[in-house]
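Sanity check

After download, print the first record. It should look like this:
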Amino acid sequence: MPSLETHQKSKGSIFAKNIMIVAACSMVTWFLCQHIKVTLTNSLSRRVFWAVNDDHQARRIKTGMYITFDQHVPRPVSRVVTFIKKAGCSSGEHLKVEAGSYYCNGKYLGHAKTKSLRGDPLTPFIYNGEIPAGMFFALGDHPDSYDSRYVGFISRDRIKEVAWALF
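Expected structure tokens:
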């Protein structure tokens, strides 16, 4: 029959193992929460992203890649929001705006609206020419996406992360 001392060591060993399991699960959860991004708006057709803050990747952003950045949103409450958008047109590519429609190297990107869904006036960003070095025209998939059609170019130094769509 095991002694009381053996029983206490066994309980202590189980407690220590449980603490290690909880600590490991907490670290894995923390790691995942640092990289999993979820968009709650209809701005993008994809909802869940894996995002990394990697200077090497940020230097190699190309049209079609997803990026995260902070953007001031004036309405309904003035605040700064982290956006996930697609790089719709990148440095060196040609952006053309014609009758409210946006084109990158001749490919249709979307149309700017003059009023938001709430009826607030919107001022479309107008630019025709080569996108300057270190700048991106960020775009959502949805026609009502609040993106570069209204806020202009996003500079590379504002990009927080590069993201890949999961779902």
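If your output differs, re-run the checksum step. Summary of this record's structure: The chain has two domains: 4-37, 39-165.
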